[in-house]
Amino acid sequence: MGSEPSYAALAQSLGRRCAQQGVAIVFGGGRVGLMGVLAEAALDAGGHVIGIIPEHLEQLEVGYTEVSELLVVDSMHTRKRLMAERSDAFCVLPGGFGTLDEMFEILTWKQLGLHDKPVTILDQEGFWQPLLQLFAHQHASGFLRPQHLGLFDVVPDIDGLFEAIARHPEPRVDLIDERL
Q: Per the structure, how many domains does the chain have?
């Protein structure tokens, strides 16, 4: 859950806010970590939560069986593909390797034109600044084009997250398909 209590508080607040605004949550289906905190807060506030977890992680991550809908799938790839298909937008909270893996995959799919859904990095207390500096370095070194840096928004708080998503054009539903 991270070293700072503010990370879990952020996840709880976002879960409650999603529930209050009628925004369903699609996540990796585990009870652990910030996403487990977010899912629990959304459920406690009457929200709809969809978990998607591969069979081999169901026991390891303590699958969250109390969610509104739990899909147990055959692989990590199927998990990420279904999460992408079932989501209208993507929010990146502070996290570890799994968070980075999912963020980079969804950004790469957007770069390749496989989806045009909003991707927002929630940079609470500057958590993501080292990564954003890396992106700037990659750009300055000629590995990222200016339009690549426009594939995502960076916001400091939950209000900024909802504002960024609201500014984004309606995604094309025909983009995510079997190409993933």
A: 2
Partners of 21 in beta bridges: none
Closest CA to 26 of 67, 72, 73: 67
User: Which domain, by its residues, includes 43?
Assistant: 1-87
Helix, strand and coil content of the chain, in percent to the nearest 5, comes to: 50, 15, 35
Select the more confidently predicted residue: 115 or 177. Answer: 115
What is d(CA 63, CA 57) in angstroms, rounded to the nearest whole number?
Answer: 8
- Write out the two tokens for 168: 């984004």
DSSP state of 77: H
Long-range contacts of 71-77 (CB under 8 A, 24+ apart): 71/29, 72/29
pTM value?
0.91
